[in-house]
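Bumping my old thread because nobody answered last time. Still need a sequence for this structure:
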């Protein structure tokens, strides 16, 4: 149910004006849910990037409440700009979410593996992959034989 109070075109773009943030969030969520369902029907999976911030909360809540979204076939990336955020604040938030039944420990572990710390440019996983690739590297001498690098 689309509850737009007013619709008009700005050039080739269709614009809908809603009476409240909640109405806008529900309309955007209903549209997004249908796009996700269609993608999963067509390809068996969907990938979604969702912006964060307080302006997105009504949309995210409404999308969460949409029925029949095949979330098990959806990969969601929650995008935000974390420049300048103290890593300890993130750790504390994850610890608190763990205490209250959240997935904080799992998320923390994944973040620990995939995100570089303040002192390094690469993550633990990137370092492991690079080490594995170096151990598999080979060189060719003039005789054409492949020999592992030392």
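Sorry it took so long. Here it is:
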């Amino acid at each position: 149910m689309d509850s737009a109070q007013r619709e008009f075109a700005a050039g080739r773009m269709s614009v809908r004006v809603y009476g409240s943030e909640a109405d806008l969030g529900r309309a955007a969520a209903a549209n997004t849910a249908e796009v996700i369902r269609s993608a999963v029907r067509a390809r068996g999976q969907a990938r979604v990037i969702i912006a964060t911030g307080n302006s997105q909360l009504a949309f995210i809540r409404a999308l969460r409440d949409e029925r029949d979204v095949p979330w098990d076939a959806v990969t969601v990336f929650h995008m935000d700009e974390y420049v300048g955020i103290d890593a300890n604040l993130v750790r504390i938030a994850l610890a608190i979410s763990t205490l209250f039944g959240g997935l904080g420990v799992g998320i923390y572990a994944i973040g620990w593996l995939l995100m570089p710390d303040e002192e390094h440019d690469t993550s633990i996983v990137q370092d492991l992959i690079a080490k594995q690739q170096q151990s598999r590297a080979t060189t060719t001498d003039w005789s054409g034989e492949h020999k592992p690098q030392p």
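Residues 85-137 form one domain. Let me know if any region looks off to you.
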